[in-house]
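#structure-requests
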Amino acid sequence: MFKMLKSDKSRRIGAALDGGAMLGLIMWPANAVCDAMHLQDENERGMVRMLLNMMLLTVVSVIAFAVLFGFL
């Protein structure tokens, strides 16, 4: 996904930005819920993943907003 640059310094940074590992970490909670619900159809799994990822993103955003503006 990310192309590594030719210099040796950039190689370590490019290796840390591996798209597959990052995507797996982000998608893990939603995939676990889909597996627990025994969903087989990829369209259904996609809808559940989208719902759960948006819910998690909303919770993280609200907490970040509250911390940033001193509500918590």
